[in-house]
């Protein structure tokens, strides 16, 4: 598989062959008060991807990333866009530090009922240092903790009945105000 534009974008690559991901419709489930959260099937897929990436010894890429992939789906249903979303979520922090690094995507799909899979080549100028990867994980954990604290504070204020809906909106994070708390698909 060639890289996205046939150019030499960088010398560092992460090459993976992963199982075909679950449907995007089954990936997220509603959770009381938390918007959408990953389903059990999604968590199992993420764990499988993490094991496979760790087995290859691949380090996350740093800087702008170009992604080439071929998705061999098990049957002639589903669209490539949803497959990309699920793969991006599963590979975030593993093949690259953050999905906002992905600046170009070349994707094609085919059918292979006997061996459904996704072949991925992610290319960047360099791999992240262990310190960069650790700092990114720490920052992501801090953002998640802050979001949880805000949700808990809002729930407590609402439970006491002392806060009006408007004051709760002022306390909430922008994602909560938009009704997209808890990792909803954006």
From TrEMBL:
One of its GO terms (molecular function) is magnesium ion binding. It holds the Pfam family RusA. It comes from the Bacteria. GO terms for biological process: DNA recombination; DNA repair. Residues 143-186 are annotated as: Disordered. Residues 146-165 have a biased composition (Basic residues). Transmembrane segments: none annotated. Coiled coil: none annotated. This is Phage associated protein. The gene is rusA.
